[in-house]
Amino acid sequence: MRVTAVKSRVNSRAAPKGGPIPLSEVDRSATARASTGLREFDAVLGGGIVPGSVTLIGGPPGAGKSTLLLQIAANLARERGPVIYVCGEESAAQVQLRAERLALAGRDILVYPETNLREVLDQAEQIGPRTLILDSIQTVWLPESESYAGSVTQIRDCAQAAMEFSKRTNCATFVVGHVTKDGAIAGPRLLEHLVDTVLYFEGDMNGDYRIVRAYKNRFGSIDEICVFTMEADGLHEVGNPSELFLSGRHGRPSGSCVVAGIVGSRPVLIEIQALVGETSYGTPRRLANNVDQARLAMIIAVLERRVGLQLGSHDVYASVAGGLRVSEPAADLGIALAIASSFRNRPLPADAAAFGELGLSGEIRSVTASARRIAEANKLGYRTLFTPQNYADVAQAIEAALA
Ligand code: TYD
Ligand code: MG
Predict the structure, then answer these.
(1) CB of residue 234 inside a 6 A radius of ligand 1
(2) CA 189 to centroid of ligand 2, rounded, Å
(3) Is the pLDDT of residue 252 over 50?
(4) Phi, psi of 47, rounded to the nearest 5 degrees
């Protein structure tokens, strides 16, 4: 009886504005995703940008944050309407120079060299942009916040003000945040829980490609990556990252193993490199670069105890070529094979690829998405596969691989 009463009230739409509404009647028309014009980047976002969302784009200086955002801005301006690009770090002329270099028309991009965020939001209130870009959060400040620009308080207050504006007006906002390589400047990190989506540039910024990874995404899955090459006319998406990651591989070096990994939702081939050398003095060094340090220690222990490799008197370096960070246990077997290969100074077969998790007794455990890993390996010509299906334990796999 009471339920019917409630229902009829809701259905009559006489409920006061702003009150609770039935989930099924929430108006979603304003939240249709928009394409940034970069297909792979759209995928990292979870299928395009959601209106009213706030996205943090972090990375070290020189990573390509401003370049990426200007490219996106041009597309979003064309597709959705005005974009305000707040350039706190550069003059409007510098941004225009970059746009010229990128061959962007930029008619609907409103460049705004203003660091007072109150001014920015007041202007935005009148213009009604569909997209707002703050480049960077470290340079903007609010007069009512008593700290200096770039301070923790200012960064948080500014992000909150931008969030509020975004949600209320349904404007998609991108916030740039600088992070140093080791994450030393904690600024952007404290924004991670505030914003909807966090993307970071990762990998080797000196090389000519860039990896953008989703660390948090309220509208998509995390760990999704897209790969760009940085060229004279801006960032270009790389359709097949596996080819790029393996492009530096020549011949059959010892200490190298191709791993069929899964990054985000896609299979990617990467090269694990290991270098094992006698320790000249003191405790042996174990150095992991883009590989999990604790996993490396575990793998070394397994190789010592279960395979009998005398690594106790050797330094071990393990790294992922190309700078993609790999944290999945499925890389264990590849890391183990690379170390064994370097230790014995024998290369793996040229067409070898591996995946599988190592257990403490040396067993190779199965991992997710086997079929997709194998398909990606085969696609690129890797046919000698070391997988949990083929080998039960790591000692066997090593004997077969280095025979
Ligand atoms: P930038 O986007 O300014 O980096 P961030 O905003 O993250 O600090 O540019 C990064 C580097 O890329 C810069 O050193 C110059 C280079 N670059 C190119 O190689 N090609 C280009 O088209 C552009 C615009 C920049
Ligand atoms: Mg910049």
Answers:
(1) yes
(2) 18
(3) yes
(4) 115, 35
Residue 98 CA, closest ligand 1 atom number:
24
From 3.30.230.10, 3.40.50.720, 3.40.50.150, 3.20.20.140, which CATH number describes the 244-401 domain? 3.30.230.10
Q: Which atom of ligand 1 is nearest to the CA of 70?
A: 2
What is the mean predicted confidence (pLDDT) over 98-116?
Answer: 91
Res 39 pLDDT > 80: yes
Peptide bond into 166 cis (omega under 30): no
CATH 3.40.50.300 domain extents, the chain? 29-239
Decide: 230 in ligand 1 pocket, CB within 6 A: yes
Backbone angles phi, psi at 171, to 5 degrees: -90, 135
From 230, 231, 233, 235, the mutation candidate for ligand 1 (largest count of ligand atoms within 8 A of CB) is: 230
Residues whose CB falls within 8 Å of the CB of residue 250, separated by 6 or more in sequence, listed in order: none
Indicate if ligand 1 lies below 6 Å from the C-beta of 206: no
Q: Token digits for 143?
A: 């007069």
Q: Decide if pLDDT at 238 tops 60.
A: yes
Report yes or no on whether pTM surpasses 0.70. Answer: yes
- pLDDT 10s digits, 303-312: 999 999 999 9
Hey, what are 239's tokens? Answer: 């359709």
11 compared with 345, residue with greater pLDDT: 345
Alpha carbon nearest to ligand 1 atom 9, residue? 64
Residue 65 in contact with ligand 1 by CB distance below 6 A: yes
What are the structure tokens assigned to 14, written together?
A: 């006489």
Q: Where, residue-wise, is CATH 3.30.230.10 in the chain?
A: 244-401
Q: Nearest 5°: phi and psi at 366?
A: -75, 155
Say if ligand 1 is within 6 A of residue 266 CB.
no
CATH class name, domain 29-239: alpha beta
Cα 403 to its chain centre, rounded Å, is: 38
